[in-house]
Amino acid sequence: MEQRQPLASAARGRDGGRGVVAGLVYVFEQVMPDPFVLSIGLTFVVCVLAAVFGPHATLPTILTAWYNGTFNILGFALQMILILATGFAIADAPLVQRGLRAMAAHASTPTRAALMVFPIVAVAAWLNWGLGLIVGALLSREIAKRVKVDFAWLVAGSYSAWSICNSGLSSSIALSQASHGNALNLVEKATGHVVPLTDTVFAPFVFVPSVLVVVVMTAIFIRMHPKPDDVVPFSEPAAAEGGAANADPHARGAAPTSFAARAERSVLGTLLLVALGVGYLAMTWRDKGFELDINTTILIFLLIGLVLQGRPIAYADAIRRAARQTGSMLLQYPVYGGIMGIMTGTGLASTIAKTFVAIATPATLPVWSFLSSAIITLLIPSAGGHWAVQGPFVLPAALDLHASVARTAMGVAMAENVSNMLQPFWAVPVVAIAGIRIQRVMGYTAITFVVSLVIYAAALWLIP
């Protein structure tokens, strides 16, 4: 695995122009535990806060809410793991791998690497957050194999570019408010109207700051790259553990002409699944119009991966390789589900949201919604679950104050972009695929947190 930056190296970095960044990396390495251990610590903190500030906090309520949250999230957890696994299978396909290698060949310096990674990952994340995660991790690894670049810096850059995903086409908050009959369409339930994507994802107050974050952070990351003596490069053992093996995974040692071997290599199984999936999507989109949700995203990823991999056994092997990256997610999702349950069941989340709403005006409500969301996201790092908690409080406030409903809702979503840079929940699959310690990555993304916090808050306040 990638080696940690020596303390002497960090000290040298603090003496130079990149001292703040080197200091943050050093602090995160020394202070931040494994993400699973961190999630346990957050559970303790939330229990204490709920006991003190939760209006419905009793010991039986906390215990029941924790248990229900832990197991109610399992369906969602499997969906997230499948998005990661099916996205990995796409990126693992030979055609896509050749494309990644071809792009990586043009990144001959750290500056060119940043100029390549940021726009490519940002576009992928804007189209779909799962695709952005996978592309960012694998593209970073391919570049780092060819260029002497600090690997933690590069992975942190790809994760920073990914941060705009909640302002894109796969934003669960924007999509749910645009979807008639969606269970999380709180706007429609309150007003009878949906909020089209033109008022959220494509609105200037969302689109402009998302572009600014990518542009500004690209420039900042170029300046943040460690000096040559402090660079910790990519190491091959990380690639061997984190992703595709070099040997042909489809080779079979015995009876290559047996029925089992022929069935594994036959494209008929692939064709059957693709036909079923395409047929369902065509029928549904014809009858209900084009709509993307988590399940259809997984299905589309599955179909694309099957086509790119070709043979059923090739796809199965790709998923097996992807499964190596999901172990930490299997641990963390239930723990965060328990945190979510405690915050919801005891009323702690509503207390946080109401505190900000109480001091809001029609002009400032979206900004207060954004700031309260930034706090809640650190404890509930899931946009859909977060919206189910905060939405019922900020939307009635927007209606009562005659504030912008779309701006208030997207304030919640945009804060997800920001807080994800300090919350390691979504960074776990990225660093697992890349093969690097998360602590060094979060030292860099702390800078992204500060910059994007200012940009998004200013956009909500100033851009019409």
TrEMBL record:
Key words, A-Z: Membrane, Transmembrane, Transmembrane helix
CC per GO annotation: plasma membrane
Pfam families: SCFA_trans
InterPro entries: SCFA_transpt_AtoE (IPR006160)
UniProt superkingdom: Bacteria
UniProt KW Membrane keyword: yes
Transmembrane segments: 36-59, 71-93, 113-139, 151-175, 201-222, 267-285, 297-314, 335-361, 367-389, 441-463
Name assigned to this protein: Short-chain fatty acids transporter
Organism: Paraburkholderia caballeronis
